[in-house]
Amino acid sequence: MSPIKQKKLDNLRKKLDILDNSFIKLIKKRTNLVNEVLNLKSYKKQIVDRKRIKIILSKIRKKSIKNNIDPKITKRIWENMIWSYINYEKRNFKKK
Questions:
Q1: Helices (H) and strands (E) in the chain, counts
Q2: Which of 8, 30, 51, 76 minimizes the number of CB atoms within 10 Å of its CB?
Q3: What angle do CA 76, 79, 85 make, to 5 degrees?
Q4: From the CB of residue 69, how many other CB atoms can be counted at a distance below 10 Å?
């Protein structure tokens, strides 16, 4: 790789790192909200809401298409995020 291309690559990677740091802050905010939601649930079976998951993924698909983002990418990201938080809720559920 030429030095010019390497420099461009390095700059782009720095921008990606900054963006990743923003994601971390958003994930922290989301986790706090999930904790609030979890505190409202009385039964472990309330953790998985397949109807809501379907609605969320449908909305994400529409928003992705509208914003010219490959919907396969966003679907996979959201599915992983949703199921990661479901796993988190199951691990942290405390019966009242």
A1: 3, 0
A2: 51
A3: 140
A4: 13
Nearest to 31 by CA among 73, 79, 84: 84
Distance, CA of 61 to CA of 76 (rounded, Å): 11
Quote the pLDDT of residue 9.
Answer: 97
Q: Using CB atoms within 10 A of its CB, is residue 47 exposed (0-12), middle (13-18) or buried (19+)? A: middle
| Residue owning tokens 């989301």 | 30
Residues 57 and 74: their CA atoms lie apart, in Å, by 9
Closest by Cα among 49, 73, 45 to 60: 73
Domains of the chain: 3-92 (1.20.59.10)
Per-residue model confidence as pLDDT tens digits over 16-75: 999 999 999 999 999 999 999 999 999 999 999 999 999 999 999 999 999 999 999 999
Q: Which residue has the tokens 């919907």?
A: 71
Tokens of 58: 């449908």
